[in-house]
Amino acid sequence: MTLSTKPQSISPAEMTKELVISKCDYFVDVQLWPIKSVINPNLWLSNFSSDEMIYATHLLNSFLFYSEQLVNLMFIASFQMLSNDIRNDGDSFLNTLISWNSFVDNIIITPVTGEDPNISDSGFAFARKARQQLGIKEAQLMSQEQALQLLVDEGPRPVIFVDDFVGSGDQFIRTWKRQVRINSTNITYEDLSSGSGFSFYYCPLICTEYGYNRLRTTCPDVNLRPVHTLPTCYSALETDSIIWPPYLLNDAINFIKKASERARIPDNNGSVNDWRGYNKLGLTIAFAHSVPDATLPIFYWNKNGWKPLIQRT
Hints:
Structural class: alpha/beta
Strand content: 5-15%
Low-confidence stretches: 1-13
Mean pLDDT: 89
Radius of gyration: 22 Å
Distance between the termini: 50 Å
CATH topology of the largest domain: Rossmann fold
CATH class of the largest domain: Alpha Beta
Number of domains: 2
């Protein structure tokens, strides 16, 4: 008796509106996606003409939403992955456990923040997750000022930067190089990284290939440990994008541009809310708690009569 059958593959030509909508409905049924007041595929598709529907359907099919449960599991995984950095080849299980417990007891958890640190920055939420999901003590969760003060006063301790997403890497670079007045001297994390014994880890959930390469070059003393790295082909704007079938690829960018113009989404050379997403990264992802600036605004725009796929808070 056959217990299961291998699902048939679906060619790009068979990727119909009805098929994608049924997939979205299934995601709601199994609680991977929230209810339609938060994500509404049918309402979003109503923005497009019949000639545009094939493009809109493939763009919707590429949309990746990470629920709160998935975010929490990824966050736990990002932290547990650090055990690979702590373990030495040949160590016994007991010695590895002792090293790991010592590491956990001494770490500082600190958020990645924007140019002007704000409580709404996603890094603050992930610092709280370290207490809620990992059991890290409240005293080990510190602002940049608190962390730098402790490192200057008491010497090296492992520092872990937490956040959800790296697009361009701008936010982390600002955090890494931001000067803080400590004991009458301006200090940055970068300054301390050249000292003996200091160790810094950055554990975002998702990192673009562009952001990964940029941080490895600009912040070489940081141990960058993302859970997932997105290759450039996951952008809707790349010539080798996997979002579009070959027969749509040539006109796909023009479709996004024309629809964005209709919604009056600005063209501001890759700044926030540019129709191509921040830094022109053209991504199609969202988290339950936020939509990254690098995601195409066409998904969350709610002005000028445009109906959003997802509400951006």
